[in-house]
Each structure stands twice: as structure tokens, then as C-alpha cells.
Amino acid sequence: MKQYIWFDGEFVEFEKAKVHVLTHSLQYGSGIFEGIRAYQTDKGPAIFRLDDHLKRFFNSAKIYSIKMPFSEGEIRKAIIETMIKNKLEEAYIRPFAFYNDANIGLDVTGKKVSVIVATVPLKTYFKNKDKGISCKISSWHRINSLILPPMAKASGNYINSIIASLEAKGSGADEAILTSVEGYVAEGAAENIFMVKDGLLITPSREADILLGITRDSIIKIAQNLGIETIERNIHKEELYTCDELFFAGTAAEITPIKSVDGRVIGEGKPGPITKTISDKYFDIVHGRDILFKDWLTYVKN
Question: How many other CB atoms are there within 10 angstroms of residue 31's CB atom?
């Protein structure tokens, strides 16, 4: 079956969606994007927290002074239409805005901004996700607002994540955990992080230079509904070694248990009860099996 990408208001065959090799955003990382999931439900595919992702997408554009050529409503419509066009029951959705200009130089004044929407199948981001993954605390720090705006989901920001992830995988771990320049736990290479200690759910606050993840926010709200107290505070990295449970949260990673950090086994070395309770509730919600936060789902209907 042919797949299509929405490109500046037109559908283009997947293989024919191309830009010049000197495109500004390819050279300099000057694009912004979102990662959104659509899940299969009894009512057909449903996009998880679409409007919240779109709000962050346009906030990223504002932070980087990117003049969007389409409105939030137009991109919303494009995402739904691309899901319908590609006839996918589940998908990872990638809206991406970039400077589509093939000239050398940093100046983006007057440069053309293009927007694409891609929908691609994605099952599991991490291998062995169900059993838990291993992590390494990176020697690289998370960028902060004195360097680049971490609250914007910009292409160039992820060079920071890539180099940390390569370091972790080079040491035999599955993923990296980055710390802030002050030394507090920030997040994974592309995931927010949560730890459980003595029944409390604890996660770094925005002061740790994290991306304010949509899934992170979902987990906090789900935990509150389940009666699990959540605390947002600075976390010392050695706290990870002695916590009871640890997991990542993100659109691609979903909820991924962490079984070890720097060779130290977390808890019993397998997904803990609070992680499992939150994870089960999360997947019931995204698949439309639970009416809790039903407004988080945007159903795709032909």
C-alpha cells in the first residue's frame, strides 16, 4: 500500500517527499517538530492529546521565531487527513516545520518555511521494553536556557541527546540519562524520567532543564487520579541507585521500566507495582478502554 506525506498542503508519495541537500534545516538543525501517537481503539484510530501537541509545536515555533505558513487548525486537519490517507490503525505522527532554502549561511530572514506531516508505523521504541532497560548516567549535561531553549522541541537540540545516547550504547547500556549543569537528574535522551521511593512518585521539575513532555503530564494526572502522590523536585543522581522503581515516559518510549542504572539494579530488577499500575491505566486510556481523560483522544473517522 502506498504511503503519503502531507507537504505544504499537498499529498506527496512517501518516496518523493524530497528537499535539496543544502536545505538550511538539514545543515543547521533549525527545524521544529512534534512526536504524536495514534492508537487503535474500538472506534477506530485515535490520536493521543493532539491539541496539546499542536500547542507545543506552535510554542516551539514562537520560541525560535519561525513564522508558520499554516495555522494550528490547518495542521490539525492535515494530521487527521494524513492518517485517513495512509489508512493506518496505529501510527507515530511527525509534524515538522523547517527552513526550505538551499543557501549557505545562518541568516533565516525571509527564508521559506515548509511544513510536512508524516505518519509511520511504530510498535516498540526499545527492545526488551517489557522486561526493563539498562541506563547509563551520561558525562554530557542536558542543555539549559543559557545555551538553547530546552522547552522547544527543535531539531538542533537533539544533538545533545544523540551524543549522550551514543555514549550510553557504547558502554553497553540501552539509553542515557542526562543531568543538568548543576548535576541534578534531568531526563533520558528523548524521554522524561520518573522514580518511585516509599510509595511516592518523583520526577524532575522544569528547573532541571527538561522538555515538558505531554506523556509526562499525562502520567502525573493519571497518578493523581489513582491516589499516588507525585512530587516534582530536584533529584540527585545517587537517588536513582536506591529508588524502588524507575521508568521513562515519552511519546515514542510510552512507559518503559528501567531495570538498572550504571550497573546498579533498580528495586528487584523488573517492573515494579506502581510502574505497572500506571502503565496499565495509561494503555487503557490511549486504546479507548477507559473513559478516564476521554477528552485526550481525537478519533480519526473516514
Answer: 25
CATH code of 75's domain: 3.30.470.10
Helix%, strand%, coil% for the chain, nearest 5: 30, 30, 40
Report the C-alpha gap between 293 and 165 in whole angstroms.
33
**147 vs 141, 164, 185, 277, 289, CA distance in Å?**
11, 17, 18, 38, 43
The cell for 191 is 524521554
* Mean pLDDT of the region 54-60: 98
Burial of 3 (0-12, 13-18, 19+ CB in 10 A): middle
**C-alpha separations of 81 from 9, 86, 213 in Å:** 11, 9, 25
Q: 68 with 39, same domain?
A: yes
pLDDT in tens, 107-154: 999 999 999 999 999 888 888 788 999 999 999 999 999 999 999 999
Residue 153 annotated in active site: yes
The reply to whether 92 and 116 lie within a common domain is yes
pLDDT band at 193 (very low <50, low <70, confident <90, very high): very high
The answer to whether residues 76 and 139 belong to one domain is no
Specify whether 142 is located in the same domain as 282: yes
- 88 domain-assigned: yes
Indicate the number of domains in the chain.
Answer: 2
Domain membership flag for residue 296: no
177 plus 207 within the same structural domain: yes
The single residue of 111, 136, 153, 281 carrying the catalytic annotation is 153
pTM of the model: 0.95
Q: Rounded to an integer, what distance in angstroms lies between the CA atom of residue 182 and that of residue 180?
A: 5
301 found inside a domain: no
Q: What are the E-state strand segments in 25-100?
A: 32-33, 36-39, 46-48, 91-99
Expressed as residue numbers, the domain containing 161 is 129-286
